[in-house]
Specification:
FAD/NAD(P)-binding domain; 2 domains; four-stranded parallel β-sheet; about 25% strand; binds flavin-adenine dinucleotide
């Protein structure tokens, strides 16, 4: 029986695992290795940080979920991946494979900017569940004092949505508590213009979201380089100093150490794939989600990366599973070039949200769509509940 190892227990790895089981039945031994015991629904992290969700509302234990499907789960950190020996090293043990799916996401590169990040710096984060929980504690403390808030995405970011969602969510929370007048809000982004999102923008999105910043009286700095964060001060590349009582920044991404050390990735540690989502030199290595290298369509004045959203990740994983199963079953694989991936996303804006769709994700496009309203905010909440309900029953299904 063929052995398939999947690294990563989030959108990419879980979708690949479920889909592989569906395509292959019991004709392969599938093992999923993940550092964390739980799947955590990242789109709700901004709500955790603002105290609107508890971690237990948005997490699902991987062991129970996978064992019901006959998929083996190992909670471990892959230390080394040897593509020649077809083996992964888990520290105390090793696993051999015939096929491997790399769904390891990214390393959050807080070290790239002095003073950045919750561990060694002065800014908060919502990029992991632990960070979101810590940020909620800091947010509760902030509410007692008020003062300037600086939120943003640094140079090299490829996941812009969370900073938008957090600043609009924070603004709405302050307004609801009657504390808005105690805070000045500033948004800093490496994007060349509002709503570029690393995707070349969504036609009218720039105007729609800019209006939202204006209506909410939030200062905006685009094309911004964050040079350094000092205690209570963000220093931009042009010398601008932004004092803060509370600050949160999305850091640049790079590949995780195991990918960098394996030599499978590009210099940033992301892995280039063919149209079947296989590594170009090792056809038994499949890659999905944030771990995939996607070249930006255009160079921006300040470097930005292309996001690989949950929706895109799920789509990639379905292609990965279909093609990996086809290889085992002696069937024909189907191509899905990266340039043909679509994107659908709901960016929460506090009381409202923006529903966005682009076909394909990177321009030129056949179709783009953006609508803003309270209905989109409710749609995001309904979707969160629906997704977690379905997941607990063993299915990943993003819209
Ligand atoms: C705050 C936030 C909000 C978001 N909002 C949205 C949204 O509204 N809509 C949307 O579509 N997308 C959203 N996204 C993006 C979405 O979460 C990502 O696209 C998705 O998580 C990518 O999945 P992935 O499996 O590729 O990587 P990740 O989710 O990063 O998962 C990687 C997994 O690999 C594991 N791993 C890494 N290295 C190792 C190792 N060496 N050994 C074992 N395990 C390892 C990690 O523990 C993790 O389980 C958001 C992301 C964030 C952070």
């Amino acid at each position: 029986m063929k052995k398939v190892v999947i690294i990563g227990g989030s959108f990419g790895g879980l979708t690949a695992a479920f889909e592989l089981r569906r395509h292959l039945g019991r004709r392969a031994e599938i093992t999923l290795v993940s550092e964390t015991a739980d799947f955590a629904f990242a789109p709700s992290f901004p709500w955790v940080a603002l105290g609107l969700r508890k971690p237990q509302d948005i997490t699902v234990g991987l062991d129970k979920l996978l064992s019901r499907k006959g998929i083996k789960f190992l909670q471990a950190t892959v230390q080394k991946l040897d593509p020649g020996k077809q083996e992964v090293d888990l520290g105390n043990s090793s696993l051999s494979y015939d096929y491997i799916v790399i769904a390891t996401g990214a390393h959050l590169d807080f070290e790239a900017i002095p003073g950045l990040g919750p561990e060694k710096g002065y800014t908060h984060s919502i990029m992991t569940l632990e960070h979101a929980v810590q940020t909620n504690q800091a947010w509760q403390q902030y509410l007692e004092t008020g003062g300037p808030i600086v939120i943003g995405s640094t140079q090299g970011v490829s996941c812009f949505g969370p900073a938008y969602e957090f600043i609009f969510g924070a603004e709405h929370a302050l307004w609801k508590l009657g504390l808005r007048e105690k805070a000045s809000l500033t948004f800093v982004t490496s994007e060349p213009y509002i709503s570029h999102f690393g995707l070349g923008g969504f036609r009218q999105a720039g105007r729609v979201i800019e209006d939202e910043f204006a209506e909410k009286d939030i200062n905006v700095f685009t094309n911004a380089v964050v040079k350094e964060i000092q205690p209570e001060r963000v220093i931009l590349g042009d010398g601008t100093e932004l004092p803060f009582e509370f600050s949160l920044f999305v850091p640049p991404f790079r590949g995780v150490d195991v990918v960098i050390n394996s030599g499978l990735g590009n210099p940033k540690g992301f892995i280039a794939v063919d149209d079947y989502y296989r590594h170009k030199s090792y056809p038994n290595i499949y890659v999905t989600g944030v771990a995939v290298a996607v070249a930006p369509k255009e160079a921006t004045p300040v470097p930005t990366g292309v996001p690989k959203t949950g929706f895109m990740t799920e789509h990639m994983s379905k292609v990965v599973a279909r093609n990996l199963a086809a290889d085992i079953l002696g069937r024909e694989a189907q191509a899905l070039p990266l340039r043909k991936l679509d994107v659908i996303c709901i960016a929460d804006l506090g009381a409202k949200a923006a529903f966005m769709m682009a076909k394909p994700a990177l321009p030129p496009r056949q179709k783009t769509y953006l609508k803003k309203g309270r209905w989109a905010h409710w749609l995001k909440i309904i979707f969160e509940r629906y997704f977690l309900f379905k997941l607990k029953r063993g299915a990943m299904n993003l819209p």
